[in-house]
Amino acid sequence: MLIPTIVTLAALLVLGSLFVSLWTERLWYASVDFQGVFTKVLLTRGVLFVGFALFGALVIGANIWLAHRNRPNPLGLRRDDPAARYRLAITPIAKWALLAVAGFVGFFSGIIGSSRWETFQLWRNGEAFGTKDAHFGKDVGFYVFDMPWLQFIVSFVFALLLITAIAVVFVHYVFGGVRLGTKGPNFSRAAQVQVAVLIGLAMLVRAAKYWLDRYAMAYDSSGLFDGIKHTGANAEIPAKNILMIVAILCALMFFSTIFLRSWTLPALGLGLWFLTSLLIGAAWPAIMQQFQVKPSEPDREGPYLEKNIEGTREGFNVADVQTQDYSAKTELTPQELNASAEARVSTRLLDPTLISPAFQQLQQVRGYYTVQSTLDVDRYAIGDDPQPQDVIIAAREVDLDGLQASQRTWSNDHTVYTHGYGVIAAYGNKRGSQGEPVWVAKDIPPTGELEFEDAPRIYFGEKSPSYSIVGRPDDANPIEVDTPRGGGTAEEEAGDGDSTANTYDGKGGVEMGSLFNQVLYAFKFAEPNIVLSDRVNSNSKIIYDRHPRDRVRKVAPWLTLDGDTYPAVVDGKVVWIVDGYTTSNSYPYSESRSLAEATSDTLTDGASQIALPTDQVNYMRNSVKAVVDAYDGTVKLYEWDTEDPILKTWSKVFPGVVEPKSEISESLLQHLRYPVDLFKVQRDVLSRYHVTNAQTFYEDGERWKIPEDPSAAGSTKQPPYYLSMSRPGEENSRFSLTSVYLPNNRQNLASFMSVNSEASDSENYGKLQILELPSDTRVGGPNQIAAQFESDAGVRAALLQYEQSQNTRILRGNLLTLPVGGAMLYVQPIYIQRVGEGSYPVLQLITATFGEGVGVGQTLDEALRAALGLEQNGTPEPEEPAPEGEPGGEAGEAKTAEEYLADASRYYDQAQAALEDGDLATYQARIDSMANALEAAQRLLG
């Protein structure tokens, strides 16, 4: 009785877990108003499971039954037959064995079939692309939508027939239909016919595979490039046509055993197929490749390589990239260059990867709040200025790890500390007097330049707890920790009673009023307190799957999501914006790319951004913009690429799930941007496919590479940077995403790449531009410029005191590259951080160069003027004495050497006072001013 009991309990456990999972998923989808997605996916997977399970079970079950039914008379079998022991063991349980095998094969067939629900829906609802491939003349939709499903069906049926044939041979062997003799196996008539028919059917399926393989060559990834090549067009495709005919003939020869008792014709058929596969399928293409193509490869492959270049640029949407020569030299005077830089550069100086500790220490407010380690860049129109400004922004989220150990109880973790509060934002191009950020939004309740409609509580975010139970009885006091009274400071500890409380009243979450739901979620999260606690009441809701990417992934499982989710304040509410991609790996002639490799850089290696999967793709579009409300978790999907056939297909599968692009509000449009992962993939593609001439592409002398990040250890790639800049020929700065290339084997700059990232600029959004430098350029690449900054005497002098101090660390920020005035401007912020608990990096200096000259200062203007020789590093150049009778100096008179010496003495006293106060920034500024005053006095004294 023990075995049936264990089996029953195991079955109940599996079924119970399945029920809990499905029912809680149903409740979750209902809570976000996406029941249709859950129902359609479940129904599709269920139908496929049942269909494939029945097909697999019937095919193998019927064949095993036929083999057993047509077994020879057992009285004629010898007892010393090697199969006798199997026969004796199976005969009593033959019926159960048949059901078990059929059930086993059917179950796994169903699992395999249901896993391809996306492929099935794309095949069933596929839209036409409206363009045809260059070889077969078929619509691209056939390759993207039909081919994956047809290839899967052929592979599945072929594998099922082989498994069935093996099972049938085994049954016939056990029951005497197949006997092993000295001259080989002997088949009974029934065994011969059944096995031959199964093999014949397998050969027909093989013929279908040859037919499909011809089309699959259009995106074949082997060889010199992806797609059909010279050998493929002239040998492999004709060979597959021949093999298809041979496979059909071979199948007919196997079917002939229905009428003929001999294996002669099937054997001849197999021999013919094998010989044809060897000579025509393998040898002919190999000989053509070796002796016809390789000696003249550039000429033979040229026309096909042109198709690959065109297909790849179309597949990754870079066909319209604007490439222009950029000399990186200028005839402008230093004064004109500086004026051009001031007019065109609104450079984001704050480094989002370094200032998180400053946000944390200055605006954390309580220990149970936190921000991401890498912050986000957005732009906002602030005050009366119509031109949006770059802003570094972070959501202030709840962090349970910030609680004291004594506070980590189930009640606190899941019913008290439930949400974050507001955003922290700072100007991207400003620094405070001590190098700290200049706030755009700060404090709790929020103050600053950003306006909020209601209290901006964050229940759904990147740091939210796994689940929280919210809601209180109508007459009960609130228990969710909310706003600290009086604003609070970073030094105040959590749980000191200095906080107000809140009760969640949003529409997000699953109702927990019924005991049934409480039991379900107690099982789901393996937590009995969900049932036992008095804090779970008739008004309670449970909120979970709270990361914005997780929520979007669940309501749109067919999307690949960008690794950088960012917060924005839209119409007074905090929302999360997620970019969604439609992808394929069967776009004709397009070179496939690994998403993980193409998007890997410093940020993904450091887990600052989520790495994309290792999927191989050769088609990619940013088709959807998703928005998740940070308070109630509402998910909105908006159509973005209105021409994408894959999005149109999924819109047919899930009607009404993706809202039209016209529904995007103007206020939301201001904060949509060009997605970083798409740009990374396009950057990876264009490192080689910026070349459009097949001969030049083949020679591969113009290949570029992405530089290593000079501000990070190791050999990881430099990430792209969001910042406002103006392109050559443009007057106004535009929010852009930028990167640079190096020649393949050198470290100097090859080109500068940017894309207009302002979604509100519908005419120019998404336009890629490459500024290509001459091949003999001397403009340094990022690592060369970083080394130039480090070795420059002025920079070293400015950093000397910090290098000599054991209490400070020097942190170099992102090295930005911008085209300005016909030249290339490099800008890098330098941060200083004191060693010790509670310290954070402060923006101390800015370094800049236009090539030869290096400037350093506390502002970008100082650094630019110093780099151009208009001022000395650190402070404005002291004034020369004015001629007699003309204004000069601070009071309109020419200053004397004695006055400069008095200034130097005053600066020295101020520097010593700042040093005693620990104010290193002011100390350095006063020392620099003293040095300049002394130099001016020396100049006057000759």
Could you please describe the fold and organization of this structure?
By secondary structure, the protein is an alpha+beta fold. Helices cover 43% and strands 18% of the residues. Helix 1 packs across helix 14 and helix 26 (897-916) runs antiparallel to helix 27 (920-941). It starts with a helix and ends with a helix. The model is unreliable at 486-496 and 875-893 (pLDDT under 50).
Short descriptors:
single chain; six-stranded mixed sheet; alpha+beta; 27 helices; 43% helix; 942 residues
Largest sheet: 6 strands, mixed
Contiguous helical run count: 27
Helix content: 40-55%
Tell me what portion of residues adopts beta-strand conformation: 15-25%
Average residue pLDDT: 88
Low-confidence stretches: 486-496, 875-893
Shape: globular
Question: How big is the Rg?
Answer: 36 Å
The N- to C-terminal Cα distance equals: 110 Å
Total strands: the figure is 35
Structural class: alpha+beta
